[in-house]
Amino acid sequence: MSTALAYAAPPDSSTLASEVSTTLSVAAGAAYEIFADAGELSRWLPIIQVARIVTRYPDGRPHKIAFTRKLERGSLSYTLEYTYDPEARIVTWTAPADSNVVLTGEARFVPLSTRACLMLYRLVIDLPIVDDLVHGELDRHPASHVVSEFREHLRRLC
User: Fold this and answer.
1) Is the pTM of this model over 0.85?
2) For residue 106, which of 84, 121, 88 has the smallest C-alpha distance?
3) How far apart are CA 10 and CA 145, in angstroms?
4) DSSP 3-state percent helix, strand, coil across the chain (nearest 5)
5) 20, 17, 16: which is closest to 3 by C-alpha?
6) Shortest CA distance to 93 belongs to which of 157, 41, 20, 29?
7) Residue 20 burial class via C-beta count within 10 angstroms: exposed 0-12, middle 13-18, buried 19 and up
8) How far apart are CA 93 and CA 146, in angstroms?
9) Which of 3, 37, 85, 145 is placed for a possible disulfide with 90 were both Cys, Cβ 3.0 to 4.6 Å?
10) Taking a C-beta distance cutoff of 8 angstroms, is the pair 93, 105 a contact?
11) In this predicted model, what pLDDT tens digit does every residue of 97-107 receive, in sequence order?
12) In whole angstroms, how far apart are CA 135 and each of 80, 84, 116?
């Protein structure tokens, strides 16, 4: 079950914010750890061509990741900085302040039982380039798209 909420910015802005929640049939800790392996995004999220870890935290988790995202005619490269809260099972990411890409988000995993959790996912996007491919994805609610791909990835793994 998923609940999607989309919040559009004022008409003169290209910023799009979307949220979704869904139940996963995996323990919250396991879902968090799989999602927190942000360097593996290109393996399960088809819109990402490359995810290259630039820097890591002392515990080995990715801190800065350089992404290349396919477009209809070319690609878009950007860097995101990740933070992790293992106790609360929250992963957050944001583009550096000097980036021309605005992309921030949060994934939260709330235990429902020993074998299920609630995933809360929030995404805010403002891209400098919006071609037909990106425009179509944004129309389809980007947070729902990511959560759907993550659910499929979990299904294959677990």
Assistant:
1) no
2) 121
3) 23
4) 25, 45, 25
5) 20
6) 41
7) buried
8) 14
9) 85
10) yes
11) 998 888 999 99
12) 21, 30, 33
Tens of pLDDT, residue by residue over 42-70, are 999 988 999 999 999 999 999 999 999 87
Ramachandran area for residue 91 (φ above 0: left; ψ -120 to 50: alpha; else beta): beta
pLDDT band at residue 24, thresholds of 50, 70 and 90? very high
Handedness of CA 8, 10, 11, 14 (dihedral sign): negative
Which secondary-structure segment (H or E) carries 133?
A: helix 132-139
The residue type at 70: K
Burial of 36 (0-12, 13-18, 19+ CB in 10 A): buried
Strands 74-85 and 2-8: unpaired
Question: What CATH class does 2-46+82-157 carry?
Answer: alpha beta
What pLDDT sits at residue 118?
98
**How far apart are the C-alpha atoms of 145 and 74, rounded to whole Å?**
21
